[in-house]
Structures are given as structure tokens and as C-alpha cells.
Predict the 3D structure of the following.
Amino acid sequence: MADLVFLDGKFLPRQRAHISVQDRGFLFGDGVYEMIRASGGRMFEPDRHLERLESGLRALRIGVGTPSRYDLLEIARRLLEGNGLLAGDATVYLQITRGAAVRRHNFPPDATPATVFVSAATFLPLEELRHRGGSAITQPDTRWSRCHLKTVNLLPNVLAKQAAVEADVTEAVFVRDGFITEGSSTNVFGARDGELFTHPTSNHILPGITRAVVLELAAEIGLRVRETPILAAEARDLDEMFITGTTTDVLPIVRLDGRPVAGGVPGPIALLLQERLAERLEGPTRPLPLREVVA
Amino acid sequence: MADLVFLDGKFLPRQRAHISVQDRGFLFGDGVYEMIRASGGRMFEPDRHLERLESGLRALRIGVGTPSRYDLLEIARRLLEGNGLLAGDATVYLQITRGAAVRRHNFPPDATPATVFVSAATFLPLEELRHRGGSAITQPDTRWSRCHLKTVNLLPNVLAKQAAVEADVTEAVFVRDGFITEGSSTNVFGARDGELFTHPTSNHILPGITRAVVLELAAEIGLRVRETPILAAEARDLDEMFITGTTTDVLPIVRLDGRPVAGGVPGPIALLLQERLAERLEGPTRPLPLREVVA
């Protein structure tokens, strides 16, 4: 099956998708991105992802020639279809940068078109890990103070995730001023006495789509929720800890910095939210058999 | 004259220099760079630049297939020659990223070769501005806490420089916890009662090559120097303020946030350091006439 991607107005094989060395994504990390989950060809919460993308583009004032939300969705659909990803799990990746121009820090000339890159790939959910529970290490949150923007200035996240891989754990969890902010590519939740905790949306965390969905699911279930940061020093006293993300879903964390959290086993709240999220991913209006028809 | 650049082992025209959409420079800003000044075909302090580049590569653990310092210098020399930049002022730009691979935050497979990009361009020194003096605005230092690394995670610098351009000033100067750290692409100095001040090297500033040279020149001249940060609120009480950088040289700042600094005119210390730096740029062993012979 061809691995088609979309770049600057054209569909082409991934190996032939090249950008200029003068692209401001390459030179400055001057762009934003999104990763959307697709299940059986159906994208999960695409509007929220594209709304966040647009909000990032507005904040950074990137916009020349950027496709409409409708066009981006259509491009994503065509990639899922063209790459044989209408069955099973997949991800759609979208990145928009401020385009290619002679290198200078300030914005390029007004007419410089943005670079638009979209790709789709098959994806293997972490089924087994999700049931068994994952592990994490803490890392100092060295990032800038505009983490609510989903930019490709991702070097601190890269280094934190690499530290996690080398420590043989699932995720690295950032700690700023003693508080857990979020993971290198996930949001972090805790539960104690039946109450759910997570860092409030602020300039120090990404407003995760899965985070928002989990908060909705928690409300549906009737859980009390407090958007307040978790003290890293108190994390191991939680009844449960879990991380959320587009490719992570709801993943219980049962070890932190080498020591058990919450008795070292996934807790009931995480497992319940996991189940409810899976139902949402399947889609409320399209039961399982239909997926196979579409595929 | 052809605009040749060097990319991944080959010299080729800039318009044909393209990288994969999977390059980690594009996806994560996962790389470092240097800008070297050349004058009459002679690079200024190339060893210090390449030493800083190597130190950044070591810190980020990028290294597979990276050319030696000798090879990078040779590539730069060939670009200066091939692009007709042996006379006048030019800059050499070098960028090395962690290469192209399937997108995931942690490092790619060990054998993934780094992407090496080198280019050279003509450059017009800010002669008139340097004599008249420039202006600056302050901007909150929103950057991460590893600013000593010269990475391409440059979005905060981009936004600060754009704010400067829109305020019709020369540079944006970052303020962290009330103190001036550095400019968006320069270091900042102040002078009071014959004493020079600049932010100490730390994780909050780039150890500028021109900064280091200016400190040496100050010592030669016999100026007292204190590497201590300048309080933004006290900046206008300085006798002089100036910024330094590879393409900025020594540039007096005579207005800050719309109000005069140091009487609104360049001070004697900045002008003296400017002159001494110009002598160094010309090179101690190669007086002016010889440049024309080489060209």
C-alpha cells in the first residue's frame, strides 16, 4: 500500500515529500501540529483538534494560504482512504509552519505561504500496557512558559521522552516548582478518595483533547473533579495515577521513579474511564459491525 | 553567481536543497546551529563557533555521521569561494539535526545519520546604525531553561524579534525575574562609572562568541568587568547600553521601551569596543589591502 502524504497542495509518496532547507519549521521550529486518532476510518474529535490548531495558528499569526478546517478534514480523509487505513487504528498528523523564506528571526514577507503537511499512519494501541499499567519518571520541566501552544519547539519533550526510554518506563512526567504539570506527550491525572485531580489549563500545560474528554466522562460518571496541580512529592500517596493522550488513551501509572504508586496496580477509576473512552472512540452513532462495512 | 549550499554530503543550488518531511529539525526543532561571520573570505573565530556547535551536539547527543570540525571548515571555505564571497562581508550558517526517521519523540534508531546543512550568504553590516545607535524593547523571557544551547527551538526568539520589528526598534531584550538576560539574537552589556556589566554565562543565556571577544577586548583596554545581570528597571540609569552578536558586532542601544538610555547617544566605551572588534574582524595578521588581493 502506498504511503501517501499531503504537502503544499499535493498528494505524493512520503519518500518524495521534501521541504526547503529554508522552511521556518526546520530553521526555527516555527509551526504548530496536531495528531488526530482515527478508528475504523472515523476521526476522533476532529473539530476539537482543528480548533486547537487554528487557535495556535492565530496565536502565532501563521495563516497565509492555510487550508480551511473543511479542507484539512477532507485531506485527512483522503489519506486514510488512500493509505488503506479505513479499518483498525490510525493516526493523522498535521503540521503547519510559517513557510520558507530567507532566514531571519522576524516574520517573512507577508505573502509567504505557510507549509502544510499532513500524513496518516497505522497505529497499534497499547492494549496490554493499558491493562497492566505503565511506569513513569519525573523530569524537571525545563520548557518555555507557553506550553498551551502545540508548537514543534519540542526539544525538551524529546529529551524527556528519551530519558523515559532509557529508564525503561512509559513516560516522563514534568515537574515545575514541585508540581506535576504534564507528561512529555500526555496529561497527568491523580485520584484520591474518589476525587479526580489534574493540572488546570494554564500556560504550563497543553489543553489535551483526551484530557477534556476524560473530564467530560468523569462528569458523566459523577466523579468529583478538582483542576489543581498534584505535588510530585505526594504523587505516591494517590489512590490512582494515570496519563491521557491521543495515542495513550487512559493509561494507569503504577510505578513512579522506580517505586509503586497506588499499590502497583491499575485502579478502578482509570479502568472505568478507559472503558468509557474506548466506547467514545468507537463512536456513539456507529456500532462495531458498521466499521467493517465502511472498511 | 550560483547560490550553492551543502546538504548531507553534497554541494547543490539552494533552490534544490530539500530535506525530508521526517527530518527531526522540521518535526521537533531537534538540532543546533551556528552563524559564523566572514570578512574578506576569512572566518571570524571559527574554532569557538565549532567548539560551541560540538558542545551542543554532545549535550543533545546528536552525532551519527557528523563531519569533523576540519571538514565543516573546509565546506564553509568552499561555499564562500564558490558563492563569490571572498570579498566583503558574509555569514556562514551551519545547522545539524538528529536526522530523518519515523516520527516519535524519543531518539531515532542509532544508525540514523544527522542532517548537516551549511550555507553562506553576503551580509551588510549595520554601519550607520552602529554609529547612530539602535533601540530596543523589553519582552518577557518566556524561553526554556537551557538557553545556553544554540538550538533551533527558536520560536520565542522569533516572536520577540517580530515584536521589535513591529515596534520599529532594532532588538528585543528578554527580561526574566526583573533582570535582563539577553536579546533575541544578541547579548546585552551595560556600563556605569567606567565599569562593564553583562549577564553571567548560565542556563539562561547563550555564551555568545562576540560576548566573549568583547570581554577580552575590555580586559585589553583595562575596563573593569562584572558579570552580573542588569535590572531592567535600572537600565535607563546606565551610562551606556549595547548589544553584541555575530552580525550585530557592538551596537549601542540609545532608546529602551521608547525612552532614551544614556542621553540618547552612543557612549565612548561602546564606540571604543566597536573599533577594537572591527580590528579583530579584519584579522591581526592580514591588513586591509591584502583582502583585495585575495578577492
